[in-house]
Predict the structure.
Amino acid sequence: MTDLLPDDLATRRLRPDAGGLRVAADLLRDGGLVAFPTETVYGLGADAGNGRAVAGIYAAKGRPSFNPLIVHVLGSEAAARLAEVSSVAGDLMAAFWPGPLTLVLTAREGAGLSPLVMAGLPTVALRAPAHPVARALLEEVGRPLAAPSANPSGRVSPTTAEHVLGGLSGRIDAVLDGGACAVGLESTILALDPAPRLLRAGGLPVEAIQEALGQEIAADTDPARIAAPGQMASHYAPRGRLRLGAARPEAGEVMLGFGPVPGDLTLSAAGDLAEAAANLFGCLHRLDAMGAERIAVAPIPDRGLGRAINDRLRRAAAPRP
Ligand code: TXA
Ligand code: MG
């Protein structure tokens, strides 16, 4: 299911010194996938502005659906370029960054993030990791990095480079070996809309956040929503009605093409699933902007990233309240 890497490609294990960091940064700038240590767990990193690289994360993890990923930055300045930072968000960053706290904020349009990172949502999850290797890598790359935990879908999060290689060897370009992670538990995720709401309990105790803000924080840890925010009812779907598996448009339909099936716009004229994944949410937004009321979608092969694309299209096509 690796659409981007040949099966026999070896995953490099890099030392977290100047040479290793330079190799890792070059790979990431070229759209590669590099796992790196954070204080919580190892993340599987890709350039958050490169849709194909982000598609590669989903392919390497073997995820059958798209869910939004956490974007890693050095600190509040970089965060403010990507999202709207309210005063509460700023206070939390000052108190807890760098560290195991992720904040879900309204994304800035035109900030250069791939819509696939947010799975089409208007919000972005941002975190500044404290691990010195993660920070050195962010500095060397000079770009925000999307990074979910570096494990195959459905397996436990990795806290050593050995765990990463055990699950993803041959599917990613490299792993920066920074030893064992100190926290061993994913970051705490807080939404600010604008009242703080706990989306995932994690490495930073919620009590510490409550103390810093001087207020109680409502928990929204409904397991169904937290495990799969990509399936929430509020998740992005275009306003138009979708007809899937269409060989050609009927009268009045706007056609979304793929491969040999041409369209008014196309997910990938070359029939490339990674390109289609990278274009998916952008195309859905453009269809809305065009005012498309009825949309025909070309068939997408149900393998590799095609499974996640079809999952999202089926959700978008399902009857809505
Ligand atoms: O400790 C961590 O947070 C690790 C390390 C590598 O930094 N990263 C991690 O990332 O756990 P990830 O991508 O597996 O976490 C993604 C979760 C989603 O499942 C969702 O719960 C939440 O972050 N999330 C991301 N973007 C969101 C958004 N826009 N709205 C709501 N939840 C979001
Ligand atoms: Mg995970």
About this structure: The first helix runs from residue 18 to 29.
